[in-house]
Specification:
215 residues, alpha/beta, Rossmann fold, 8 helices, 45% helix, globular
Length: 215
Amino acid sequence: MKEVSTDDLARVLWDYMLMGHVMEPCDLILVLGSNDTRVAEHGARLYLEGLAPRILFSGNVGVLTRHLFAKPEAEVFAEVALGMGVPEEAMLLESRSTNTGENIRFSREVLAAHGLEPKRFIVVQKPYMERRAYATFMKQWPGKEIRMASPRLGWDEYANELLPKEVILPLMVGDLQRIREYPRRGFQIEQVIPEAVWAAYEELVRRGVTGHLVG
């Protein structure tokens, strides 16, 4: 029997990570910072399509952007959006957070400081982080209605010179492990992981894709 390719295993995880939410008008677009400015572009497009009256960019620097950006992720992303035509007065910035939990918690504080209490959110993140961002948001700020969004790219289309497959794959494998492990640590809500997805994860770990696993 022919061995399943690493790309095929990666696609199983990739497809699971996508939430498949349909976009509808909301109160706020929350764009989570990262090393991929395509996330900022996607958030800006959603705003320009009229899906929310405000957009909030969240992120300081993390492991992946410490040596990439000269300023917080939120500021870099806001500049991208400004260049695409998003008016400055429609933007809010949260530039302290260094992980997804802080993205949610500190964004909540920024909104409260502006007297805002959105009920419906579109949360924008990288494709392979949609599900973990969703689980984190629902734990950190329960009772809200959220739809996850990301650049509409598949596993084979997403990689580029900045984010090659060999960089993305360990991150995605680590994120799937966190989806299983983090609920018991109080960081995320529980989510069902289909057997086929977990089997693909275990095979990737067996093949040495372990660089982003937590102990």
